[in-house]
Write a structure and sequence with these properties.
295 residues; mainly beta; Outer membrane phospholipase (ompla), Chain C; 2 domains; twelve-stranded antiparallel β-barrel; 15 strands; globular
Length: 295
């Protein structure tokens, strides 16, 4: 199974590289509008743009087996997939050159090394946000943008499911996890370094946190992310936490371009709480590697 997965991954990467080089295809048509539409379609000229990194990581190794909420026996080795896109909606409604976006991110944790290969956890993350540009040409550390967002995260599970242990005993467990939240993000630049300072808070209403009322104890209300650009490589470091509880997480990534900057080798290290919603209160240390199609 692993060999087939890697061969398929290589085929996708090479296909993306090959298709991206098929530009200016000759079309003989009397319908100029149809010709323009066809060329636009062939060149993949659509409004949807990458948002967070889009990647396939076929090998992820955690320091322990994942907690199971069903009869499935999970291993500590799995694959990880993330798809993330944004759509510009409009701009400059307030006369500040601000941009309005809708976005959707989808991350899945796939137990491909077990017999039935289930998806252990899938998280869905739609959001709407506004980006305000800041024209700072004076400071050494320049404020570049301020972003405000309303977002939702959930794992799409029902409130009740049945867990069966090895002895055949059954237990009703709640796999549902969700949160609605606001966040503000200030992005600064210092030479080749971008720095994001983020403040996050749940939206109003007790029902918003009914499935995971203590999630902010583990996520925390603030986080920082650093992106360092060195030639064609990008290094990132994210740190978040709640000082009052001592819980939090750190994540580091590295990416290097392949196939003329169309695909990237992508490595990720995560340690702490909140790798996924189902494990928001379970501490995980994990290293993953694969390819990305945006970063």
């Amino acid at each position: 199974m692993m060999f087939k997965f890697l061969v398929g991954l290589l085929f996708v990467s090479v296909s993306v590289f090959a298709f991206e080089n098929e530009k200016n295809i000759d079309i003989d048509s009397q319908d100029k509008e149809a010709e323009k539409s066809m060329q636009s379609w062939l060149n993949s000229e659509f409004a949807l743009k990458p948002y967070k990194p889009n990647y396939l990581l076929p090998f992820g190794y955690a320091d322990k087996k994942y907690k199971t909420y069903s009869a499935d026996e999970y291993k500590n080795v799995e694959a990880e997939i993330q798809i993330s896109l944004k759509l510009p909606v409009t701009k400059n409604l307030l006369g500040m050159d601000e941009m309005y976006y809708l976005a959707y991110s989808h991350i899945a944790f796939w137990q491909i090394y077990t017999n039935s290969s289930p998806f252990r956890e899938t998280n869905y993350n739609p959001e709407g946000f506004i980006v305000f540009p800041v024209f700072d040409d004076i400071s050494d550390v320049k404020l570049r943008t301020i972003k405000v967002s309303l977002a939702h995260q959930s794992n799409g599970q029902g409130e009740e499911s049945i867990k069966i242990d090895k002895d055949g005993n059954t237990e009703i467990v709640n796999r549902s996890r969700s949160i609605n939240y606001f966040y503000a993000d200030a992005t600064f630049q210092y030479n080749n370094l971008l720095m994001d300072f983020i403040f996050l808070t749940p939206s109003f209403g007790e029902s918003n946190l009914s499935d995971n009322p203590d999630i902010m104890d583990y996520w925390g209300y603030t986080s920082m992310k650093f992106r360092y650009f060195k030639q064609k490589d990008i290094y990132t470091l994210m740190v978040r936490g709640n000082p009052s509880t001592g819980y939090g997480a750190v994540e580091a990534t590295y990416s290097h371009p392949l196939f003329q900057d169309k695909t990237y080798i992508f490595a990720k290290f995560f340690s702490g709480y909140g790798e996924s919603l189902i494990d928001y209160n379970n501490c995980v240390t994990k290293f993953s590697i694969g390819v990305a199609f945006s970063r």
